[in-house]
Amino acid sequence: MPNTRIHLSANGPEFSRIALGLWRLDSWQLSTAKRLDFLQQAIALGITTIDHADIYGSEAPFGEALALAPSLRTKIEIITKCGIVWRDEKSLLRVTHYDTSRAHIIASLENSLRLLGTDYVDLLLIHRPDPLMQADEIAEAFQLLQRAGKVRHFGVSNFTPAQFDLLASRHKLTTNQIELSPLHLDSLHDGTLDQCQRLSISPIIWSALGGGRVFNEHSPRAERLRVTLAALGAEYGVSATTIVYAWLLQHPSKPVVLTGSGRVFALREAVAAIGLTLTREHWFAVWCASTGTAVP
């Protein structure tokens, strides 16, 4: 049996290898009952880790669904993020900006708990690196929230290795949520995933399918990838989408990979990748299709 769960770090939370990303939840136009049914089907597939952010608009509709079956809280792990202050049409703000002050982190988390209908989250992430970030102040906010039992673990999202090291020098971090897909290879080569291995922490991967561009974009790069993925899918007897997830899960940093689809069959395609091991030649075939070159 493939290992469907993983500890993000030593003494860190245990998450499902495939996590459910809900940043599009509000656009899926599901009734509260259907949201609950979708969550239950995800859990039945072994997807128990649920990813939110304060700016996604997903926390309130998710909380409404969870309120219909509160006992599910003990069967899931909730991630949320804070630090982006979003300017919308109703806002008096001039620009979207970052705020990682102690007051903002605590206020954002308190609001997330209210919307989610829970008294704690399993993991709180700083959503983006803030040029005005004061590591000591963030650490103080984390310590206050942890002592209050409102957050169990902490991490970051989209941080460079240097930014990660700075905050980790003040407070234990359990993950870095980063972008990685066959169309976005930066973290393979910029030291981010090397750092994860060095620290024995599992990253969380977002935009696994490049926001759908892997299968929808009209570009030579995407077309090369589709040909390669389809051929590999035929060889392994799975969908091309499953090959993408297997390619990501195979990285030695042992990532958790987000799926952002509201369709159950797409969740099944992601879960089917757990335990599917590509040969090294096939793994590099995807890398070469993306870069358009042979390995050096």
Label the CATH architecture of the domain at 13-174: Alpha-Beta Barrel
Q: How would you state the average pLDDT, rounded?
A: 96
Determine the strand fraction and express it as a percent band. Answer: 15-25%
Radius of gyration: 19 Å
Query: What shape does the CA trace take?
Result: globular
Name of the CATH first level of the domain at 13-174: Alpha Beta
Could you please describe the fold and organization of this structure?
Belongs to the aldo/keto reductase family. Aldo/keto reductase 2 subfamily. Residues 17-283 form the NADP-dependent oxidoreductase domain. There is one protein chain. With 296 residues, the chain is α/β, with parallel strands linked by helices. The chain is built from twelve helices and twelve strands. The protein has a domain at 13-174: NADP-dependent oxidoreductase domain (TIM Barrel), CATH 3.20.20.100. The strands form three sheets. The chain has an eight-stranded parallel barrel, surrounded by four helices. A two-stranded antiparallel ribbon has the order 1-2. Strands 6-7 form a two-stranded antiparallel ribbon. α2 (59-68) runs parallel beside α3 (102-116) and α3 (102-116) packs parallel to α4.
